[in-house]
Specification:
Length: 423
């Protein structure tokens, strides 16, 4: 006959996370602590085609004003409590001035500070990390992280001048190259065929089409009231933009196979306008604070920011950045890929998507279940924040918990973050 201590030990083992199919590491990040950095509101604008879509005539500051106004109104946060707004942006000249003016125009008081975070395609995630780190350090109590980009109104972002400077630098000119070239380098070095590119891209469009038709994306998007100018007549009219417009219904690998190579000058010339991310306008935002603060204010807790990290690699194959950043962030929390319910990996190019999924041996059903940047578009500064909005919405729909977001980063980096849904 067993002793009371033995019976207690047996019961404890039965109730342990591991015995229930939950790893200790996963149980740790699911645990709720007063000092957790939580998300109490999040939303994104529609993502629309640059120079063609509904936001083509909407500047970055107007995107920010619309989105930050929605955060203030919908979250019902007392504006004076928001101490800092970090805006992820890559291209806008004078972005720091635009960020600060947009914060004030959106109805926040002069006491709310603003800054710009720029690490190319991970700028939105960097903004989240910057606000979260300030909260963790006790520098601020409440902040907003935003990612925003108008690729219509800031198409080159100073790229010609930067390219000229790089070309004159002996080391930089050997390492940094156009993004399209890096895609072809990944395809060449790792043997990714044009057929694999098109198959990956077709799945992105198909998943996005399903998500849009099912109405899942409405949970992510706030409508934007703006103006649009007819390029032929010059007529300006008021519009409400409320849906993503880059999703091409009925896309198949066969239809994509007919699209010509975008970079015939670089081998194997497998990248096309159909299997690479679209040039896009859009923004996303998250309201962050400690759990104890959210409970004190009666703010709804939507999710939790666990952490983020960055990794560097050869610039010439920058697209494989997530294969370094994802294992790094999982390792910091003792997690394995099986502990993760959803991976949002930015689809800058199909070449990097194919490689990352294969190299990390990910379950494809977990990767970009609503489609990715090939279908929606990749507004550079916004993507890192947009991915979080999408991931947490999909976790709620699936009644799942853990998401990893990641992206490759220009000049040879990768970034990744871990988020938990608390729906």
């Amino acid at each position: 006959m067993s002793s009371p201590q033995q019976r207690l030990s047996s019961i404890t083992k039965q109730l342990s996370p591991a015995s229930a199919g939950v790893s200790v590491a996963r149980a740790n990040i699911l645990a709720k602590n007063p000092d957790d950095v939580v998300i109490t509101y999040l939303a994104r604008t529609p993502l629309t085609k640059a120079r063609k879509g509904g936001l083509k005539d909407t500047s970055v500051d107007n995107l920010l004003i619309s989105l930050l106004t929605a955060v203030r109104e919908n979250s019902k946060i007392e504006p004076s409590l928001v101490e800092d707004v970090s805006v992820g942006n890559c291209l806008a000249p004078g972005a720091t001035y635009l960020a600060r003016s947009a914060v004030l125009a959106a109805g926040f008081p002069v006491t709310t500070a603003a800054s710009v975070s720029n690490r190319f395609c991970s700028s939105g995630l960097l903004a989240i990390q910057n606000i979260a780190n300030q909260i963790i350090a006790g520098s601020i109590d409440i902040g907003i992280a935003v990612g925003a980009e108008s690729m219509s109104t800031n198409a080159d972002g100073g790229a010609p001048e930067m390219a000229e400077r790089i070309n004159k630098h002996p080391i930089a000119s050997q390492n940094y190259m156009p993004m399209g070239h890096t895609s072809e380098n990944v395809a060449a070095q790792f043997g990714i065929t044009r057929e694999q590119h098109d198959q990956f891209a077709a799945k992105s469009f198909q998943k996005a089409e399903r998500a849009q038709k099912a109405g899942w994306l409405k949970d992510e998007i706030i409508p934007i009231k703006t103006q649009i100018k007819d390029p032929k007549t010059g007529e300006v009219k008021d519009v409400v933009v409320d849906r993503d417009d880059g999703i091409r219904y009925g896309t198949t690998p066969e239809s994509l196979s007919k699209v010509r190579a975008a970079f015939p000058q670089w081998q194997p010339s497998a990248t096309t306008g159909g299997n690479a991310s679209q040039i896009t306008d859009g923004a996303a935002a998250l309201l962050l604070m400690k759990r104890s603060q959210a409970q004190k204010l009666g703010q709804p807790i939507i999710g939790k920011f666990c952490g983020a990290t960055v990794a560097g690699l050869e610039p010439r194959i920058m697209g494989i950045g997530p294969t370094l950043a994802i294992p790094k962030i999982l390792g910091k929390f003792g997690l394995t890929k099986d502990d993760v319910d959803i991976f949002e990996i930015n689809e800058a190019f199909a070449s990097m998507g194919v490689y990352c999924v294969s190299k990390l041996e990910l379950d494809e059903a977990k990767v970009n279940p609503r489609g990715g940047a090939i279908a929606f578009g990749h507004p550079l500064g916004a993507t890192g924040a947009r991915q979080v909005v999408t991931a947490l919405s999909e976790l709620r729909r699936r009644d799942e918990r853990v998401a990893v977001t990641s992206m490759c980063v220009g000049t040879g980096m990768g970034m990744a973050g871990i988020f938990v849904s608390e729906h």
